[in-house]
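EI: anyone free to look at a 138-residue chain?
SC: sure, send it
EI:
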Amino acid sequence: MKFLHTMLRVRDIDKSIEFFALLKLEEVHRFEHVSGRFTLIFLRDQGKTFELEMTCNWDQKENYTIGDNFGHLAFSVDNIYDTCHIFKEYGAIVSVPPRDGVMAFIKSPDGISIELLQKGSALKFNEFWHNQPNIGTW
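SC: here you go
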C-alpha cells in the first residue's frame, strides 16, 4: 500500500496555492472539468514524497465546513519559530503558537488546521511565541 494524496476543497485557487507555496508545495498538475464545473490542482512537496489535491467547485458560494472526519495536515519544518513568523506575516492565523519549540498549528485560507512540527530536537525557549495566545481551536 502507498499513500497517494490528501484532497481539500478550496474556494480561492490562487490564494490557496500561494498559501501552500509557503510550505514549499508546488503545482504539478491542473485539470479543468468543464462539464462537472470543478478544477483539480495537485501540489507536490520538493522531496516528491506526497501530493495535495485541491478541488475547487466553481459554483460553491459559501465557505466549506470542516467535517468531524477531518483532523489536520502535518508538516515538519526546519525552524518552527521562523516558519510561524512567515505565516503570521502572510496574514495566516497561528491558532496554537510554538511555545514549546516543537509544535504549532496554523489555519489555511479555508480554515483547515495545519500542524507544524520541528525537525529534530526542540528549539530553545522563545519569549515572543511563549506569550502569544491560542486563537480558536486546532
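EI: The mean pLDDT is 88.
SC: 👍
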